Amino acid sequence: MSAFLAIDFETANHQATSACAVGLVRVEAGQVTQEAAFLIRPPSTRFFFTHIHGLTWNDVRDAPTFADLWPEVARLMKGARFLAAHNAPFDRAVLRACCALYDLPAPRKPYVCTVRLARATWNIRPTRLPDVCNRLGPELRHHEALSDARACAGIVMRAQGERWHF
Fold first, then answer.
1. Which of 48, 53, 55, 82 is the most buried (most CB within 10 A)?
2. CB–CB of 101/17 below 8 Å?
3. Distant-in-sequence, close-in-space partners of 161: CB < 8 Å, separation ≥ 6
């Protein structure tokens, strides 16, 4: 079984370039091998989604930019067959926008959307991440980037028939 990387972004506002946190969970041969979570200083001080994830400009003002974090993110992606995310079009758009903003090479890896996976594999509806986790059993601190990435990794592992443990 090959490696994959589960990824979850939190954004400060409606701009895809406003990533303010990212959670990453690398899975190799059915085992979690690495985890990372980073606060990100977005290019704007405007925060509209604090009520969702709890982050403010003061939390990230001294954090690295996405460009500063890119070498670590790219290292975790290296050799991954695909990226997994809950509502993958959102995370794909954020990743592409942040790469474009800093003139970085956007990864051309396929995505597995765990919303679609949960619907197709277990017929779970609604398929918000808390709903899927309530059905499958993992603990979740929704909108905490690392917790969301862990849940996505677990959903993929469960669908692949692997044991789900962290």
1. 55
2. yes
3. none
